[in-house]
Write a structure and sequence with these properties.
This protein is mainly alpha-helical. Helix content is 79%, strand content 0%. This is MFS general substrate transporter.
Length: 330
């Protein structure tokens, strides 16, 4: 359920994208209301909503799995057991060692690259979707309305992807599929296709990027052992990948209108790099899992050769067994 919970949080961004289009359309008709300009109403309305949500969250957020009423008894037991395994890992490796390990682990930087290949197109389409649609020949107000359907569908898609990814315990196939969807959308928009076909392409861009946004974050979290290493690794991944937002702000230039060859071309490049990185990461994880399989087999053979008395004295080896059973999520 990890990716699904993350999808609920990030899916709010897609929902916000849908509502922001509707809000922008409404605000165009609120200019001068109450003696305020339209942009002022954006801060007032969105600020009030944010404060209300924060107040509600104070009462509904929980601190510990044992007090989480929304979890079933089985789910609470699983989360508590997972935390205990993390604590066992933390006892073996102190916090400073785990933090350093996060900075030197290839997984963090490889999956940061994958996440950057997602966030850069995501930021690009988020910032410039109204402008891109407006260049299809629609009015500014109507362009804002046309941004609503892609985000609404993306909100549903991100939850569907997350549900099935958690269910079959795989990350890479869904990330790869979403990236292909987004890639097709950007290829359509860089082409000379009619405006209604390009509008369909924007659906693919939004759906593909939003659907996989929580995927690589969950992927890294699944494969980092130790809570401190996981926390620092995820922070590094998100921080590095968000640099793509700075690039995305500057690649859709007004002089490139209406095809935006530079912007769409760079987004295609980022997605292509991500697709290649996913294939290489999966291949590496398969090799690492094969090595863990061999180590577990050797451990079982060693245990079978021990007498009953030695097995009873070897209770402390259970931690080692748990570590051996760990496998990298593909």
């Amino acid at each position: 359920m990890y990716q699904y919970r993350l999808a609920l949080m990030l899916g709010a961004a897609g929902l916000a994208g849908a509502f922001s289009g509707l809000l922008a359309y409404a605000i165009n008709h609120m200019d001068g209301l109450g003696g305020l300009e339209g942009w002022s109403w954006i801060f007032i309305l969105e600020g009030v909503i944010t404060i209300l949500v924060a107040l509600i969250a104070t009462f509904v957020m929980v601190d510990y799995p044992s007090t989480a009423k929304f979890l079933t008894a089985e789910e609470r037991s699983f989360v508590i057991e997972t935390r205990e395994r993390d604590e066992a890992q933390d006892e073996e490796h102190p916090m400073s060692q785990q933090i350093w390990a996060a900075f030197t682990d290839w997984q963090v930087w490889a999956l940061a690259m994958v996440q950057a290949s997602i966030t850069t197109p995501l930021y690009g389409i988020t910032y410039f979707l109204p402008t891109i649609i407006n260049n299809f020949g629609y009015s500014t107000s109507f362009s804002q309305l046309l941004t609503i359907p892609p985000y609404a569908i993306a909100t549903v898609t991100i939850l569907v992807f997350a549900h099935f990814s958690d269910k079959i315990k795989l990350r890479s196939p869904f990330i790869f599929a979403g990236q292909l969807i987004a890639l097709l959308g950007y290829i359509i928009n860089i082409s000379n296709a009619p405006s209604h076909i390009k509008y369909f392409g924007t659906y693919l861009c939004v759906i593909g990027t939003y659907a996989v946004a929580p995927g690589s974050i969950s992927w890294l979290a699944n494969n980092l052992r130790g809570k401190y290493k996981r926390a620092v690794g995820m922070a590094l991944q998100i921080s590095v990948s968000n640099m793509g937002g700075a690039a995305a702000c500057n690649i859709f230039r007004s002089q490139d209108s209406p095809r935006y060859l530079l912007g769409h071309g760079l987004e295609i490049m980022f997605i292509s790099i991500g697709l290649i990185a996913i294939l290489l990461i999966v291949r590496t994880y398969k090799r690492m899992n094969a090595q863990l399989d061999r180590e577990e087999l050797l451990e079982k053979e060693k245990q079978q050769g021990q007498n009953d008395g030695w097995k009873e004295e070897g209770g402390a080896s259970s931690t080692c067994s748990r570590a051996t059973r760990f496998r990298y999520t593909l």
